[in-house]
Amino acid sequence: MKKLFLNSLLILSISTTVNFAQTAKPAQATATSTVKTKQANEVPFVNRVLPNGLEVIVLPDASVPIVTVELAVRNGSFTEPPELNGLSHLYEHMFFKPNQAVLLSQCESAINAGGLSDLGRRMCANPLRLKSQIGSLAYLNDADQLNIYNGTTREEVVNYFYTTTSPYLSNAIRLINDAVRYPTFDEQEFKEEIQVVIGEIDRNESNPFFYLSRTMSDKLFYKYPTRKNALGTRETVTSATTDKMRLIQSRYYVPNNSALVVTGDVNPDEVFKFAEQSFGSWERRKTDPFKEFPLVEHPPLPKSAGFIVEQPVQNVLIQVGWQGPSIGKDDAATYAADVFSFILSQPNSRFQRALVDSGLTAAADITYYTQRNVGPISLTLVTTPDKAKAALKAAYAEIAQFDKPDYFTDEELSSAKTILESRDLFEREKLSEYSHTLGFWWSSTGIDYFRGYYKNLRAISRTDTNRYVKTYMQGKPHIGIALISTEAQAQAKITPEDLIGK
Q1: What is the tens place of the pLDDT at every residue in 428-439?
Q2: Any idea where the domains of the chain sit in the sequence?
Q3: pLDDT tens column, 374-392
Q4: Do 474 and 403 form a contact (C-beta atoms < 8 A)?
């Protein structure tokens, strides 16, 4: 149950290969194991922290002989100063390139076939030097069984995964181990991937909806906008070097900043054994990267501001954004935010009746995106030029009523909790996708937050939701943006003051 609250109304319109949480809690130095008794709707995963700090999370389900092996790393745009913006994403692109183990296999084959040329000896020097560390390469004989793979980069996590059949579990673990520990960063392939990423930036910039999300993020997190831009910029990507890749590797691609997530037809004890065999010799970083390179503190908005973004769109899209709660600072509000968002998203809610059933908007949505380094709250309206000002006025009237005793019923409160739990149960039906959910929660919140998620969710009361809206929304500085065509703006005449409820 990833809270991907870019806006649900815009998910189909904004395409980004960044496809696809205060400082990270240090991993324990000694091996520990946690197995929780399953309660109603608890996620029945088990986890263990290896002595080097690598956390291994296993969610078994033998219903289908499929396994997904994923490496999640606490990296992403929240670690990126301007000069490194987008390079976590570029690093992701390099992860699946041939690593030193693959090169070693090719070198040994060449040696067995008659020897190496002078060029071959130079190219094979490093792989051959690592032979004792890399170990047996027999698993590469079944590499064609691991051809379903991908990686994603977000603000607070980067993940890499293979999906295969259960007999190849150990092969997938081994392949991820060799990719993360023995990258090559070949200069020619690096140049090619830079162009691939530039192509992704081009595609995003050709989509009008990109400018709505980018403007909102840049204005909401005005002092450190790169920390919320996982895609990066054309300038930083084109100026990237393999030395910067190695810098990112040395800081974040270490066992005590990573998690191995395995879901599907597996035995947890067997996963722990394979993980120890492959990753156990991976040397932990002496200093937690988030202690050495602490996260920035996003300053609060000094005042509300409105912006008109003119793009060739048919409808008028209006978005209002607030800085919401952060994991590690106000966990209670993050649970309340989820429940409150789902109350308002239901078709028969007062919010929907006032904005959609009234005919003022074609759609209305309010979301919160869970983050360790300030999660954004977004209210989005889809309307027409002739109704845009009235829709804004009605939306702000509803916001002012969010904390009133009659804004939602006890039944709606209970129903929202049930919907959240039911959605998670449904998503668990596809464990190859659910591994990403576990990786997301581990990185942004820590796995213990997710372990207690439904217990804490069920405890949310009206008092909790009221505290959330009063602390983060009502009367608080916010950003208002209208995505509108030049022609529609000539009719609508929306002003920055309209967008902030003035």
Answers
A1: 999 999 999 999
A2: 32-95+146-292, 305-499
A3: 999 999 999 999 999 999 9
A4: yes
